[in-house]
Structures are given as C-alpha cells and as structure tokens.
Amino acid sequence: MNKIRKYFFEKFGIYDFLDLFPYSYRMYYYDNILPIFKPRHERLRKVIPRTWRDISSLLVDVNFEFVKSFYEDEYKQNQIDWSSSEEHKNFEDWLIKSYRYITVERPILQKRMEESYPPLRPFVEMFKPITDKDGRKLFQMVDDGIPYEVKYKKVNELEKEISEKDTNVLTELIKYREFLWT
User: How much is the pTM?
Assistant: First the structure.
C-alpha cells in the first residue's frame, strides 16, 4: 500500500486518493462509512459482552480496559516525558499502580474471594422432601444453623476490599482523564 501512496504522491502530488475530494466528503467517509467496516476502539468493544450484564459491572470493566489500553498502547511507547511536571509524575505513578492492581492484584483478590465461599453440602443435606396440601412432592431448603454474616464473613470482606479499591481507581481515573491522550 505504501508503494501506491508513494507513486501517487510523486506523480500527482496527492498522498491519498481521498485527497481528491473536498474535506467534508473525506470526513463523512472517515466518520460514517469507514467505521462500518473497521470499527474504532476495537479493543474496548471486546470488553462489552454480547450478553446481558449489569451496568455497574460494565462501568468497572470498560473503564479498567481504558486504563489497560492506555498503559499498554500509549504509555509504553514513551512518547511523553512523564517527569516534566509534578502532575505528570503523579499521573505516571497512579497509572503504574492502577495497571498493577487491575492486571495482577485484582485477579488474585477475586480468586481468593471465590475460594472463600463455604463448600456446598450434598443435595440430600441441603433439602428435605415435603408433600404439599395437593399431594405434590417438593423439596424445602434446610437451614444449616450458621448465620449468613458468619458463613460469608471472608467473602464479604474481600468483596468490600475489591469494591473499595475499584472505586479508588475509578475516582482517580476521572481526576486524571485529561492525561489520557497522546
């Protein structure tokens, strides 16, 4: 493709075929036609599943993908002197810490939370058969006698820790949003 562009530039003084058209036509093509065939921010689009998800979890996933995308695609290219000012240095420190939390610490916390759920009891211990007034056989859940707060204490603590750290990263992301361009 570069050979064709180079040929057109040398022969006709245009770099792109679309340069022959007025600016408004080119912008219409780039803004309305091209995205149909090649959507922008493809990486961010992949984060949103094609199934139902609550907006609260989508907010976290999409915004965390913003941070990961900026770190991996922009920050690592070293195009900006992040030590040029105190604000830039603070942003760089936050970006590195946030990226580490999102990619390393958060998955560990989530795994620990999943592992802290109490083991399921066998079906025969969880339910007892009963017969209703119409003679149908049903199953009724049997309480194991352990209060919810005790049974799920570790799960709730880890869930709260993840939520607080997520909120901190999301809040700081809004504060540093002006730095997310290069």
Answer: 0.74
